[in-house]
Specification:
Elements: H1 7-16, E1 24-32, H2 39-49, E2 52-58, H3 64-69, H4 74-78, E3 82-86, H5 89-93, H6 105-129, E4 133-137, H7 158-172, E5 179-182, H8 184-191, H9 193-196, H10 199-205, H11 214-228, E6 235-238, H12 249-252, H13 263-280, E7 284-290, H14 293-302, E8 313-319, H15 323-334, E9 341-344, H16 348-357, E10 362-363, H17 373-378, H18 390-393, H19 395-411, H20 415-421, E11 425-430, H21 436-445, E12 449-450, H22 458-466, E13 470-479, E14 482-493, E15 499-507, H23 516-530, E16 535-538, H24 552-555, E17 559-561, E18 564-568, E19 580-583
Parallel strand pairs: 1-2, 1-3, 3-4, 4-5, 6-7, 6-9, 7-8, 9-10, 11-19, 15-16
Antiparallel strand pairs: 11-13, 12-15, 13-14, 14-15, 16-18, 17-18
Length: 584
């Protein structure tokens, strides 16, 4: 479905959405200072098409203050996971919108400061009463000014006052994990003020976002839903010919492909530059190409205009196998589910083959014009994340180290020899303010080696850290090839002094298969024993994706009973002796 569909498409389809059995569910509230008809329908349809079940609540017309300040309001009874608060400059400023210079500079500054304080207090009132994420729009700076060209000469003028209000909003909630500021001003700039604001619609029904662009706003908001649900895509899998460069290297040759130096070649340069920027923030890149490996690698390694080099790709499948088989191999090699992969290929036949064979892979519909590739990927919301951690920035480097491990594994005769020669080191630490973002991220994203797949936002982890009856630990794993970063998390409920409950136990797919999990479990059991605990209880909640952890508890000596799994801490349990464990 195209983002260019008319609002009528979403309104009609919203009425026909039937029941579903989607695993991903979200409760979304929409509050606004003006008429926002069609937004919730557009949002529900867009999320339904992404297999997300969205239940919505829409506040009354310009009732956002009352809804937030009344602790017994329908908003709080609805109990949203995400709340969008959509505000507009006209409503907030009132008569000051058209008469900003009817008051003195000092009075104008005072009014804007009061507006900020009122909004800040309102937001804090909301976050104090709910666990919902709050997405607040900032304020559009209109092209209009009663001062005309002299506007830029006024220090505390109309435009600068709105700009300062936006800056204050951003700075106030910069480190607040419950509040995010949506850059509505940039949204208006992207589509144009004349398009977003339709004077006739405004005068007819206080509509301040044109009905023609409501679905575009809904599209922006889906990015927050993907991020909250932990549905961020992790790897972009790319074809080569006519995708990363123009032409076919096997036919046109090294010197004949289009890459730089002309408009068509520059399109591929621009695309590669944006791919590299995503890679540097933690999105992996891989290659899936039917090609002669020597020809393709010659371009990747030596072509002076290539932006992406061999070290930027976590996995490369350049061969004559069919692309579906290659994609399955890429997922296995990276230890990812297929639903974490995004596929770019200029060939519509290959795209159809991938969609029909592997529907879990997100196959992007590309234009025949390569100059549009960058725009297409920029407009995708599937790469949004609520937090970008140090581990994210280092992910490309970590997967390069992973390739070295795999090459080393192939060079040794057996698994035991490989593991012993890795020189594994596991550093176990208690959660602190620096590790909270990564811990939350792992609970949101880890599916395969995860006992319960419970999802926790950063504020949840902060609350756990402050609860003396709950312990959160994490493990950082190193080996002779480098540091894997924070790759394991466990959460213990210690309210019963004799029986601890293992609420969460997970391991990143990056370090699966090295028996690290047994070292961490040994640490947990030893700690329980030292604290006079007699048993540890745990649950395994099977999902479509967490089969790799299915045998973990029994392998560690846990026994099944009617409530789940339990282990006597005095039972003999020994972790692998080739792993060095450091308890910090």
């Amino acid at each position: 479905m195209s983002n260019n569909e008319k609002l009528s498409y979403f309104l009609n389809k919203a009425k026909k959405l039937g029941s579903n059995n989607f695993n991903n569910k979200i409760r979304v509230a929409v509050l606004s200072s003006f008429t926002i008809n069609g937004l919730e329908e557009s949002l529900r349809v867009k999320l339904y098409e992404k297999k997300v079940d969205c239940t919505t609540y829409v506040g009354g017309y310009n009732q956002f203050n009352q809804e937030i300040l009344d602790s017994s309001s329908k908003l709080y009874k609805f109990s949203p996971d995400i709340t969008f608060l959509i505000l507009d400059t006209r409503s907030i400023l009132g008569k000051l919108f058209y008469q900003p210079y009817s008051v003195s500079s000092s009075e104008r500054k005072k009014i804007f400061d009061e507006k900020f304080e009122d909004l800040k207090n309102l937001i804090h009132s909301f976050t104090n009463q709910t666990q919902s994420k709050l997405i607040v729009t900032n304020f559009n700076i209109p092209s209009y000014s009663p001062y005309g060209i002299f506007e830029t000469k006024v220090v505390d003028g109309f435009h600068n006052s709105i700009k300062k209000l936006n800056e204050n909003l951003t700075n106030e909630f910069l480190k607040n994990d419950s509040v995010y500021i949506f850059d509505f001003n940039s949204f208006v700039n992207q589509y144009g003020e004349k398009n977003i604001f339709d004077t006739k619609q405004f005068l007819f029904g206080d509509i301040k976002i044109s009905l023609d662009y409501i679905s575009n706003l809904a599209d922006e908001f889906t990015g927050y839903v993907f991020a909250v649900l932990g549905l961020t895509k992790r790897c972009i899998v790319l074809d080569l010919d006519n995708t990363l460069w123009g032409g076919i290297v096997g036919e046109d040759g090294y010197d004949g492909i289009k890459l730089g130096a002309d408009p068509q070649g520059n399109s591929f340069i621009e695309f590669q530059k944006y791919l590299l920027s995503l890679n540097q923030r933690g999105i992996l890149l891989a290659i899936n190409s039917k090609n002669n490996p020597d020809d393709a690698l010659d371009v990747i390694t030596n072509h002076p205009d290539m932006i992406l080099r061999k070290e930027h790709f976590a996995c490369m499948k350049i061969n004559w196998n069919d692309k579906v088989s290659n994609m399955i191999d890429i997922a296995k090699e990276l230890n990812f589910g297929l639903d974490y992969l995004v596929y770019f290929d200029d060939d519509p036949v290959n795209r159809d083959f991938m969609r029909s064979s592997l529907p879990d892979v997100f196959t992007v519909e590309l234009s025949n014009d390569p100059s549009q590739y960058t725009t297409i990927i920029k407009n995708m919301k599937e790469f949004n994340s609520l937090k970008i951690t140090d581990e994210d920035a280092k992910r490309g480097q970590m997967y390069a180290q992973q390739k070295n491990r795999q090459e080393f594994e192939r060079s040794v005769t057996n698994l035991d020899e490989f593991l012993k020669n890795l020189k594994l080191k596991v550093i176990i630490k208690d959660a602190d303010k620096f590790s909270i973002p990564r811990i939350s991220q792992l609970t949101l994203k880890t599916n395969q080696f995860n006992l319960t797949t419970k999802r926790y936002q950063e504020e949840d982890i902060k609350n756990f850290v402050e609860d003396k009856n709950i312990e959160i630990g994490y493990a950082q794993v190193e080996d002779k090839f480098g540091d894997n970063g924070i790759t394991s998390v466990f959460i213990l409920n210690k309210r019963n002094p004799k029986e601890w409950h293992l609420d969460t136990f997970l391991l990143s797919c990056r370090i699966m298969g090295r028996q690290i999990e047994k070292c961490i479990m040994q640490h947990i059991i030893s700690k329980a024993k030292d604290n006079g605990v007699t048993t540890i209880k745990a649950n395994y909640l099977p999902t479509k994706k967490n089969k790799p952890i299915e045998d973990f508890l029994p392998d560690c000596g846990f026994q099944k009973n009617e409530d789940g799994w339990i282990i006597d801490v005095n039972n003999k349990f020994k972790s692998p002796d080739f792993i060095e464990v450091i308890d910090e």
